[in-house]
């Protein structure tokens, strides 16, 4: 099938980047792929060619921060029904949740769109009751949570040595991989997040979900204040990272900080980002790279502060999903945040938004006199992965990263290291427009080489038609899992896996 042929090529591409070449032998022995060995080998040859230059002989050091938590993953509709929370006749967004009515209205706002969202619950007794009931829902399970710990474990599994900035209890420290060193004193009790998962077609009253996703609620204290920041910063210089990953700052969204405290904490994060940049352990002996992982933000003032304090002065790379991309684009255009976007956008729409964000961030950086500009964007969607990388930057093969991210998406959502073609399908068309513009070309998805890459020139001045440096765009189809085990943590695993192959 087309899906199996796409998988075989991308798996071969992935194997070519492995730190342990014996994986190639293990892969070729898979009985289900005996008819696709040739395609697999083609993927291996292309991605291991001198052009990609992504082979590594030393373990890469990559510290992610900040925060961590215990995730209670539960059937969201079952939990609401158990609590007696009736479907709201009024789907309405709330920046934070103070009572059951706001919980019902906010869940109803995102659920039918299949849009991922995360909100702070200001009512401690309500959150405590939710947590107690969640543990009693059939099938409920706990897992390691938080952007930084999830990315840390993924990067460690891909061959990195990791310094994690988080305060975790001993129970969660035990599930971290041995390659992960934790900076931050342990806590007695972890912050808890409730992950209200739902499958495609789930029903809640008159609402039906368009796709599988999750609605996350929390009432954090440790993570919102970034309590691991100082310990993390103190160990960063000696660790000499090749890559610093910053995430988890959505915990600050609508948290009741004293006046001025939030900006002070963000500036402390910026100090760590700039300190990492000045290290000499980056790719090819250059400065370390800094990646910022976006998340679900509802507070436009926080997002504006993140842009001014962190993204413009100190980020080389941004990662986000199909909801977070238009959110950032709207802010850059001077508008409000976009709370809900198309859960399954067209490739052309995403690529155009990526071009706008990439150009707008770099234009602001130029105007501010910032010498080191944004050089990478990664957008992960249900149907495809898209990676934009500046030419002649220190980032390595976008083709390999897109293939790896695509495979990781299926594995994580299905909860299996093996990809079962019977539980996956391609929902991306067999060709796509490279842009929504009138003169856009169409790009065919070739099963024998499914990751499409091409180069474009950045438009520096749209009015004058002045162009700047060249960047590469790579798009990879995703074998979408049809037997969903989990959606939470998907973006973190996908982004981390893609990053590892570009450093």
Biggest sheet overview: 8 strands, mixed
* CATH fold type: UDP-N-acetylmuramoyl-L-alanine:D-glutamate ligase
CATH class: Alpha Beta
Bin the helical content.
25-40%
Shape: globular
Question: Overall mean pLDDT score?
Answer: 85
Radius of gyration: 22 Å
How many beta-strand elements?
23
Beta strand %: 15-25%
- CATH architecture title: 3-Layer(aba) Sandwich
What would you call the structural class? alpha/beta
Number of contiguous helices: 15
Regions with little confidence, pLDDT below 50 for 5+ residues: 18-58
The total number of structural domains is: 1
Strand order of the largest sheet: 2-13-14-15-16-17-22-21
Write the layout of secondary structure elements.
Layout: H1 2-16, H2 22-28, H3 37-47, E1 60-61, E2 64-65, E3 69-75, H4 76-83, E4 96-97, H5 100-110, E5 117-121, H6 124-134, E6 141-145, H7 147-157, E7 160-165, H8 170-173, E8 180-183, E9 192-198, E10 203-204, E11 207-208, E12 213-218, H9 229-239, E13 243-246, H10 261-277, E14 289-293, H11 300-314, E15 317-321, H12 324-332, H13 347-367, E16 376-380, E17 384-390, H14 398-414, E18 424-426, E19 431-433, E20 442-444, E21 452-461, E22 466-477, E23 479-481, H15 490-500
Parallel strand pairs: 1-7, 2-13, 3-9, 4-5, 5-12, 7-8, 13-14, 14-15, 15-16
Antiparallel strand pairs: 3-6, 9-12, 10-11, 16-17, 17-22, 18-23, 19-20, 21-22
């Amino acid at each position: 099938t087309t899906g199996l042929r796409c998988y075989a090529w991308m798996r071969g591409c992935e194997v070519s980047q492995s730190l342990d070449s014996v994986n190639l032998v293990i892969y070729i022995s898979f009985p289900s792929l005996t008819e696709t060995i040739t395609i697999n080998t083609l993927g291996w040859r292309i991605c291991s060619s001198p052009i990609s230059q992504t082979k590594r002989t030393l373990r890469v050091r990559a510290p992610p921060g900040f925060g961590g938590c215990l995730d209670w993953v539960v059937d969201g509709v079952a939990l609401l029904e158990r609590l007696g929370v009736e479907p709201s006749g009024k789907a309405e967004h709330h920046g934070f949740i103070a009572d059951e009515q706001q919980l019902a209205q906010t869940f109803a706002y995102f659920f039918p769109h299949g849009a991922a969202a995360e909100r702070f619950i200001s009512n401690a007794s309500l959150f405590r009751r939710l947590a107690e009931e969640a543990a009693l829902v059939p099938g409920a399970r706990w897992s390691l949570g938080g952007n930084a710990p999830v990315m840390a474990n993924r990067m460690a599994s891909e061959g990195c040595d990791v310094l994690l900035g988080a305060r975790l209890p001993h129970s969660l420290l035990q599930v971290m991989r041995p390659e992960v060193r934790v900076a931050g004193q342990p806590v007695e009790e972890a912050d808890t997040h409730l992950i209200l998962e739902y499958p495609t077609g789930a029903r809640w009253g008159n609402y039906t979900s368009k796709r599988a996703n999750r609605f996350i609620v929390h009432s954090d204290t440790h993570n919102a204040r970034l309590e691991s920041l100082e310990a993390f910063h103190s160990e960063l210089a000696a660790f000499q990272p090749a890559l610093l990953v910053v995430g988890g700052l959505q915990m600050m969204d609508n948290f009741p900080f004293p006046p001025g405290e939030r900006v002070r904490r963000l500036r402390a994060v910026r100090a760590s980002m700039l300190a990492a940049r000045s290290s000499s352990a980056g790719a090819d002996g250059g400065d370390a790279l800094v990646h910022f992982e976006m998340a679900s933000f509802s507070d436009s003032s926080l997002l504006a502060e993140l842009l001014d304090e962190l993204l413009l002065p100190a980020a080389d790379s941004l990662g986000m999903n199909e909801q977070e991309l238009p959110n950032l684009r709207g802010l850059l255009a001077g508008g409000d945040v976009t709370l809900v976007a198309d859960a399954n956008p067209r490739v052309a729409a995403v690529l155009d938004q990526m071009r706008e964000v990439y150009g707008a961030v770099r234009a602001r950086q130029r105007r501010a006199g910032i010498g080191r500009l944004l050089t990478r964007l990664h957008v992960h969607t249900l149907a495809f992965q898209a990676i934009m990388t500046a030419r002649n930057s220190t980032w390595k093969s976008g083709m390999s990263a897109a293939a790896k991210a695509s495979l990781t998406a299926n594995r994580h959502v299905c909860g299996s290291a093996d990809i079962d073609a019977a539980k996956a399908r391609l929902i991306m068309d067999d060709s796509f427009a490279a842009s929504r513009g009138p003169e856009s070309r169409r790009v065919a998805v070739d099963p024998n080489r499914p990751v499409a890459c091409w180069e474009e020139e950045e438009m520096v001045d749209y009015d004058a038609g002045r162009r700047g440096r060249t960047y590469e765009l790579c798009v990879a189809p995703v074998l979408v899992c049809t037997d969903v085990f989990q959606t939470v943590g998907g973006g973190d695993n996908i982004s981390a896996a893609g990053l590892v192959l570009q450093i």
